[in-house]
Amino acid sequence: MEDVVKCQSIYRNLLQARGVSQEKSAASVFLRELQHTDRCDTYYDFKKIRKAYHDLVGRDSLSRIKAYEETEQDERRAEQALVHYHDFTQANLVRALDWQGWLWFHTIYKAERTVAWVTMAGGAYGGWKFVRSASRKWWRSPQQQQQLKK
Q1: 24 pLDDT exceeds 70?
Q2: Minimal CA–CA distance to 37: which of 89, 103, 109, 99?
Q3: What's phi and psi for 103, nearest 5 deg?
Q4: How confident is the model at residue 92 (pLDDT cuts 50, 70, 90)?
Q5: Beta carbons within 8 Å of 66's beta carbon, 6+ residues apart
Q6: Phi/psi-derived region of residue 141, left when phi > 0, alpha when psi is between -120 and 50, beta in every other case
Q7: Cα 58 from Cα 74, distance rounded (Å)
Q8: What is d(CA 64, CA 76) in angstroms, rounded to the nearest whole number?
Q9: Could you count the other beta carbons within 10 Å of the beta carbon of residue 29?
Q10: Which tens digit of pLDDT belongs to each residue from 25-53?
């Protein structure tokens, strides 16, 4: 039972790590975490996924990443692999979740990402409206501004 809980935690961590892939060294962190799924292959088999990343990143680069000795080139290879296998990995991670994890992913996780996106888009829209409004006032002639005040 305890192994199942640990595996579900690894799957959720990997799903959440997909969203922070812009941070420096996030790709190598993701690959190190992905290697922990080997103990969970009895619940969901990630051998094909690990092999796909291994083949794309390369044996030497992956060895350095596992040992926390990655170079800048190793990090770029890892980032490329994350981009290349994004949908494939995410689909398998979601399939590996139990019903509670699946529910968390499709409600809380997606809702948090949607709220963050809407907030960002709303702020950009509000800023654009403010600038547009301010620029209209600036371009009006003094006579037009006097007519608007009446």
Answers
A1: no
A2: 89
A3: -65, -45
A4: very high
A5: 32, 35
A6: beta
A7: 9
A8: 13
A9: 19
A10: 688 899 999 999 999 998 899 999 999 99
